[in-house]
């Protein structure tokens, strides 16, 4: 398709973008004003008193807001907020529902917002009991419509923490007539401490059935995020959002609700808006520190146990089960809509699957929707919220059938405007709840038994994703590798053959494995992590939804006999295209989970005759209709789509921003600045240039900003201002030009039991690039390791390890090599060898940038130098020129003693030093010619005179002695 030309300057781009927004906003305004105006929404705030928690004498005050539609009585919805939020975080959704005709009650749960009390994680005797009393309050208001017989028309909905509350309330309060939980959990123990391994496949026939085995692996990253968000002291009127997507991020579009007026009505505590609540600090008064923060003692104790031991006790399992929907789902028989996210490393599709099976077994009607969001990808947008509203209206009023269907979204490849294409596949029922279960196709995997090392301390650890941010990588082949990495030697890998045609995976795959410990160093159990990659024909791989399945294999025979285990992989929705293949990776570490720290080696193999069982759910592909009667949703969707197109095009231009005049220049840094949260500026207004064939030393004291600069150069962190260009390409995270840079900055992380050559081969294989492009022999020749490359790394000296690290950075013969303190820990002979390695590499016409604080080493190794101090450039140029600028001079004379005496008699001359027939002195501005003339007049024969080239003196002169 033809390429849309974009304005080249920032001002022109912003002007064009503003014009697009204005034009489309005008169109939206015409659409939205052509029909009837939205119904006004009246709100009423109130604080409600709740009984004290068990074992406490203190009453709890719950902060509520009720939203009234134009006409009452009307069907009512309790709308619960997510963890870390409060009632204000669901205000847009509440207004939407009120505009549809519902009475909506929102509230801040115990420990959040302006409500008092402790967080009990939806304790049936606390948070759930509070919600029942809120129903009492609604019914007493006479604003809620009733059915024949007087039963109130009340439903409950909410996302995540609020979704679990809705299920718990539906299972304990018979007045709840319908429930619609979103991206929530079934069993909090399995959500936070999952175990995907068992002796046999799951018996359930549903497509995303998880194993839910006991003695799981602690999901420390997600759990830590939530505990920290609830461990701080509450502040009046303030709300936080640990569940980032619930702070307004959406997946369909970003339209909010319109219309309605806020305010307070009768029943509000007139002092509540300003006065601190019981248990909160007075203004200006510090709150006493408490490691448990706003959590109950039981919850705090459970988290402390998990965080310190990494394992879950029976007592903690019982607590987590008690506050989980799984404890009451056998009592839920009302119409239920389960909305679960396909991009969710916190609560995956297995949680929704278990809830569907349990409610269906109790006799309830269940409808299930999987959508492209989740805790990693956003809460439902307007179209899906409309479906939820339609379901609640139908379930409460009888106007239509809430249904038992199943639909899931399939995200395709990126279109030209950068937005993912999405289609929806629908079936009449969720497979396995009745009749035949989900179809499973057998995909053959190949690969021999392989050792997998768990290094001491489980470090470095594999990366399967970054909680809450994985959605950033979902649509970017460049960002995806940054969010999923497997250190060499730590994983076994098994591959399928390329697919002949597309296979649409919809659910949880299973595979049988054999796991054994090393008889020489036996361990009683293995904690492993299984991942299923989609691998393209060019070798690039993507981890769908950044999903990983942790599992524990206990009671391993000490003699090395393998134990059989069936692993259930996380539920995903992913079309595997023709020509692509699947790669099963089973690793020993993952940074998001609590991993044992004892080193060990495990042997992992496919069980005899085992194949990967892949779930497939055929259905009818359908489009998503626009919300009925809500043309604003269409207009805002168009607005956001066009704005996204412009921004995506600008981002593409920036990502491919090339200055042709710099195509042959290895590095240009201009106006670089990096300011961290809190205001600390690590680098400010840094500019310099590196030419081909140079060995440039980045010199400066500790804290000068050298490492920060190198991390920005490699795209690991983003500058606050300025730019970096490598061979004319502007550096950004995932920029293709980064493949032309070799680096060594964080330590090598070599596997000691393998040879140097094997380590290099594993490292290169992990990059996914063809082996013929590695240039192993050339890198090893330059590094000068000789036959030592075939020896085990554990027998290497420190100098050999450093040279192997340099060889690793040289793989692929990058045109620019970046090294941070490569001589750390080396003795003088090893430093000399390292110097030769770097100079040989630069002699090939390539460029080296070395960060160091060793002045003498930079002087002998580098051709050019950049001196940094407190984040700023203080000098740059050739090493010799910079050293000569110190103001010192050297004289070769016939009588050194007489020369020294003569120089001492000159005013201002200091730091006189005799070294053989050389006399060094700081002339303090006196011209060398004048000094020579003065020495001759004193009867001293001068054979030679020149600057004293010592970088240390120039460095101290530039940054001071107390840098």
From TrEMBL:
Low complexity compositional bias: what residue ranges?
A: 234-248, 270-289
> Taxonomically, what lineage is the organism?
Bacteria, Bacillati, Actinomycetota, Actinomycetes, Pseudonocardiales
Question: Where are the membrane-spanning stretches?
Answer: 631-650
Q: Which organism is it from?
A: Amycolatopsis carbonis
Q: Could you identify this protein by its name?
A: Alpha/beta fold hydrolase
Q: Which UniProt keywords apply?
A: ATP-binding, Hydrolase, Membrane, Nucleotide-binding, Transmembrane, Transmembrane helix, Transport
Show where the ABC transporter domain sits: 667-895
Q: Out of the domains of life, which is the source? A: Bacteria
Q: Where is the composition biased (Gly residues)?
A: 257-268
* Family recorded in the similarity comment: Belongs to the ABC transporter superfamily.
> Which parts of the sequence are annotated with region: Disordered?
234-289
Does Transmembrane helix appear among the keywords? Answer: yes
State one Pfam family annotation.
PepX_C
Alphabetically, the GO molecular function entries are:
ATP binding; ATP hydrolysis activity; dipeptidyl-peptidase activity
